[in-house]
UniProtKB/TrEMBL annotation:
Domain of life from the UniProt record: Bacteria
Protein name listed in UniProt: Uncharacterized protein
Residue numbers spanned by region Disordered: 33-58
Gene3D superfamilies documented for this protein: 3.10.450.50
Organism: Streptomyces kunmingensis
Keywords carried by this UniProt record: Signal
Keyword Signal: yes
Cleaved signal peptide residues: 1-31
Length: 173
């Protein structure tokens, strides 16, 4: 392997130019593409969200919980309470859970799926456990107080029936 002094000057310059083009090209793609954004990573560096993959499977109970919460929160964020949320509940939740949530909401005057009145700013779903025909997922909702930088979290335990893949229970964890 050649040292920098042994590498011809034109190769060193070509390599440096290529590096600038690659880095500059990525930077401009981030700056001009609204679908791509930069977010701080836990270690203090930045991560381009286009680098973060998202996927799922219609046969995974955990993915279906994530799909439900993602869609439900998107609709609330975009439109507030909306008939589409009712349709999402009908599609993803058991009939019994829909009735249970209606009763819970009448008593607590909050959205039973989110356990709050406002829309969370972030959500995360992870597998927790499974057995006896059920799968449990932990849903973490991140809330931000209006006018403040303070955030707090709500953790929910969401039960899915493995046979139907429908969400059959939502409880605070």
């Amino acid at each position: 392997m050649a040292t920098p002094q042994q590498t011809p000057r034109y190769l060193r310059r070509a390599t440096a130019c290529a590096a600038v083009l690659v880095v500059g090209g990525a930077g401009s793609a981030v700056a001009h593409n609204p679908a791509v954004s930069t977010a701080p990573a836990p270690n203090g560096s930045s991560v381009t969200t286009s680098d973060i993959g998202r996927g799922g499977s219609p046969v995974s109970s955990v993915d279906r919980v994530a799909d439900f919460y993602g869609s439900y929160i998107d609709v609330r964020y975009d439109s507030g309470p909306d008939p589409l949320n009712t349709s999402l509940r009908a599609h993803y939740l058991t009939h019994d859970l829909q009735h249970t949530l209606s009763r819970w909401e009448a008593v607590h005057h909050k959205d039973g799926v989110l356990r709050g009145n406002v829309t969370p700013v972030e959500w995360r779903v992870v597998y927790h456990d499974s057995g006896m025909g059920h799968c449990w997922s932990t849903v973490t909702l991140t809330w931000k107080s209006r006018g403040h930088h303070h955030t707090h979290h709500t953790r929910l335990m969401v039960q899915s029936d493995l046979a139907t893949r429908l969400i059959s229970d939502i409880r605070e964890a």
